[in-house]
Write a structure and sequence with these properties.
8-stranded antiparallel β-sheet, 2 helices, 11 strands, 3-stranded antiparallel β-sheet, protein yfey like fold, elongated, single chain, alpha+beta
Length: about 170
C-alpha cells in the first residue's frame, strides 16, 4: 500500500517538474522574443550605436562628444554654472535642454518635449515607446531605464504613470 502512495507522489512530483520545465521553456522563448520589435515584426531591433547619442529638434542636432563651440542653436542660454572654482566643466542651461561641457559635450539632459532622441522618443511618451524602439533596458531601477554603449549611457526617467519625465545622454 505504501509503495502505491509513494508511486503516486512520484508521479505528481514528475508532473510538477514537467510543468515547471515547460513554463521555463515558454519564459525563455518570451525573453528571446523581447529582443524583437513589439510591433510584431520579426526583424531584430537595431543595436545601439553612436547615432543613438544624438538629440534633435527639426534641423537642430546635438551630439554627445561633439565640440561645444560648433553647436549651432538659436536658443538663449538661461544660465551658466561651473562644477567648481577651477571650472572643471561648464553647465549651460537652455530653455529645452541642459549641456555639460568641457570642450566636448559630455552630458545632455532634455527638459522639455521639444527635442527627441535619434529614434524619436521624447518627454511625455510612454516607457512602452522606449521598449518598442530600444528593446528591454540593460538595467532598470526605481523609474530609471538605462541603455549602455561604448562608454556611453542613455537614461530614461519615468514617473509612476510610466511616462517619460527626463532623458539624459552621457559618458560613463
Amino acid at each position: 500500500m505504501k509503495s502505491k502512495k509513494h508511486l503516486k507522489r512520484l508521479l505528481i512530483l514528475a508532473s510538477i517538474c514537467a510543468c515547471l520545465f515547460l513554463s521555463y521553456a515558454l519564459i525563455k522563448d518570451k525573453l528571446i522574443l523581447e529582443n524583437y520589435n513589439y510591433n510584431g515584426n520579426e526583424e531584430p531591433l537595431e543595436p545601439l550605436s553612436d547615432k543613438d547619442f544624438i538629440v534633435k529638434n527639426g534641423n537642430i542636432v546635438i551630439e554627445l562628444g561633439s565640440d561645444y563651440k560648433d553647436l549651432e542653436i538659436d536658443e538663449k542660454i538661461l544660465s551658466i554654472s561651473y562644477a567648481n572654482e577651477r571650472r572643471a566643466y561648464d553647465i549651460f542651461v537652455f530653455e529645452n535642454f541642459t549641456i555639460s561641457s568641457t570642450l566636448k559635450i559630455f552630458m545632455i539632459t532634455l527638459t522639455t518635449p521639444a527635442f527627441e532622441t535619434f529614434r524619436g522618443v521624447r518627454l511625455g511618451d510612454s516607457i512602452l515607446s522606449v521598449f518598442e524602439k530600444y528593446g528591454i533596458a540593460d538595467s532598470s531601477e526605481n523609474g530609471l531605464y538605462s541603455y549602455y554603449y561604448n562608454y556611453k549611457i542613455l537614461i530614461f526617467y519615468v514617473d509612476e504613470n510610466n511616462t517619460i519625465i527626463g532623458i539624459r545622454l552621457e559618458y560613463v
